[in-house]
Every structure is written in C-alpha cells, then in structure tokens.
Amino acid sequence: MATEVMDVPREYLPGVPDWSTLHKPTGELFSPVEEKKDWARFRLSDSQIDQFTRDGFLLNVPVLTEEECDRILEDYTYFLDPTKRHPGLEMMYEYHSNQGGDPDKVLMHGLGQWRLTKLFHDLVFLPKVVVPVSQLLNPGGKEVPVRFWHDQLFAKPSHHGGVVAWHQDYSYWTRTKPMMHMTVHIALDNQSVENGALHYIPGSHRWTRDGKPLPVTDFNFADMESIHTILTEEEEAAFKPVCGQLRKGEASFHHALAVHGSYGNRSDRPRRATVLNYFADGVCSDTEDELLKGIKIAKGNKMEGQFFPLVYDPTWAA
Ligand SMILES: O=C(O)CCC(=O)C(=O)O
C-alpha cells in the first residue's frame, strides 16, 4: 500500500469523492482537536474501564447530540430509500437491503459507508470514540495507537425488523491477527426491548475454544438462538442477556469476544444504528484473500494504507 499521508480527497467517479482517501476529519461533524491537552477531555474514567474489564462491554457513553444524529440520519436515507441511492454506492464493501432474506423480517446491513459521505467519514475520527477505544484496547495498561477497520449500518424498520443472531465479532475477523479489536455501536434512535435494542452477555468476552473465538453459527445473522448449539453447560448457565437501552446518540463499546445480538423490532418506530470497528496499530493480515471487497494485504503484513487509517495515537496527547 502506498503512502500513509492522505490529506486530499480523491474522486471515485467525476464529482464523487472517495472519502477513504482523506485521513483526517473534514470538519463537517466536529471541530478537529487543536491542542494536545484537549484530548484528555475524551478519556473514560477508571470505573468505566473497570466495568468494561469485568463485563466485556460499556454502555451509555454519550458521543453524539440529537441534532448530530438527525444530520447523520439524513445521510442514512441513501441506504434505506431506493429513490435516493448515493452515486458510488458500489464503493461499499457490502450492502444487503435485507440480510436474512425473509421479507417479514427486514434487516438492512451495510459496510463501508465512510467512503460515501462526509458525516460518516468524520464519525470514524470522532475523539469521543477513538480515545476510549485506545484506553479499552489495553485496559489497565498503556494506551495504544488505533486504526480503523470498517464501519457498519444496521437498520430495522418498524414492526418487522429482523434479528441479529448472538455472535462474537472476532469470529468474523480471524483473517486479521492478533485479536486487538473493538466495536463501538452508536444508537441513532432510542433503543428499547420493544424496538430491538442490542443485548449483551456479561462475561462472555472470556469464552473461547483453544484460544480462538467461538465458531460462527449463522453467517446471515438470521437464526437468533443458533449460538446455543455450541455453548458449554457453564456458558449456558451464565447466558444472562442485558439490554443496552441506549439513548439516541449514546454508544456502547464492546470487546471483540463479547457475545451480543438483537431481537426483532416490535415497535412502531425504526431502529437505526451505526457501528465503528477498530484494531490496535500493528494488527496484520492473515490471508492472501480479500480482507474487504477489493482490498488485499499480503498475509503477515501490517494492516495500514488507504482503507485502514490511523485515527488516534496517544503521542498526539502527550
Ligand atoms: O444493530 C444490531 O442489532 C447489531 C449490531 C452489532 O452486531 C454490533 O454493533 O456489533
């Protein structure tokens, strides 16, 4: 991969910028941090870090205002409204208008929206997100430099949202090593039991098989309880879901092995979320195949370059 310095957006098609070519915020969503000392404002407290270490997730961290969510939801229509498709939609790594395929249980799922709009691009660099990720990737230890892996959209329309089956994120990411990954789930609507909030299993970030994550039990996320076919008796006994109940603009941070999932949307309002996935600088490709659509990095080589920007380095705050 060529140079790391990407400070000019390049066009994908005439007039359609590919925002992945810009490795800093545009300023559209938030004002960039100017002074070293200002990064400290975004740090989590020790008790938040302890909670994450104990449970494998941290809930209800405010990262966006309602107004910022509303602006992002306008961009969201490019993915939900067939009359408003964004030019260059094919830059996305994946786009499923209904991942499970059942027309009565719609789940829109996409990856790669950061390449399409300034707001989704800037979200990747949000200090309220990247500083905590740096802290949580090495809780109790030294903060680490953080790179962006990919983003995701999950939307469930009112009354017939599909489920997202219980899973550990790293089960889908073993093509990158070592496991030093983190997920940030941002609610763009208030989440409740009724509208298909994300749920988490406390302590499940310690569930492995010979040092590896649990195997994937459903690639389409559609069979909610399929994970139970592979759990031990002890894991079954500890399987006590906690509902995130995130408010609009709040985030949850979850460990790459934390089991999480969400039920259908029984309410009369949509449930839309945007998700950011990161890893510690130094994580390498473990495959000669594509890592994401059209993107390859030779096995054993560091994940970096256009698609995996450095989003935070603790030395920026030192
Ligand atoms: O939005 C959902 O229901 C699923 C989200 C998810 O799997 C995640 O945030 O990692």
Provide the low-confidence segments as ranges: none
Query: What's the CATH architecture?
Result: Sandwich
What are the secondary-structure elements, in order, as H or E?
EEHEHEEHHEEEEEHEEEEEE
- Bound chemical compounds: 2-oxoglutaric acid
Dominant shape: globular
What does the radius of gyration come to? 19 Å
Alpha-beta content class: alpha+beta
- State the major sheet: 8 strands, antiparallel
Give the rounded overall mean pLDDT: 95
Strand content: 15-25%
Q: Could you describe the 3D structure shown?
A:
- The protein is of the alpha+beta class.
- It has a single domain (10-29, 45-316), classed as q2cbj1_9rhob like domain (Jelly Rolls, Sandwich), CATH 2.60.120.
- It contains 5 helices and 16 strands.
- The strands form 4 sheets. Strands 3, 4, 5, 6, 9, 12, 14 and 16 form an 8-stranded antiparallel β-sheet that branches. A 4-stranded antiparallel β-sheet has the order 7-13-10-11, with no helix packed on it. The protein has a two-stranded antiparallel sheet with strand order 1-2.
- A hairpin with a 2-residue loop joins strand 1 (10-13) and strand 2 (16-18).
- The two termini are 29 Å apart.
- 43% of the residues are buried.
- Bound molecules: 2-oxoglutaric acid (AKG).
- 2-oxoglutaric acid binds at residues 154, 164, 169, 183, 185, 198, 260, 262, 273, 275.
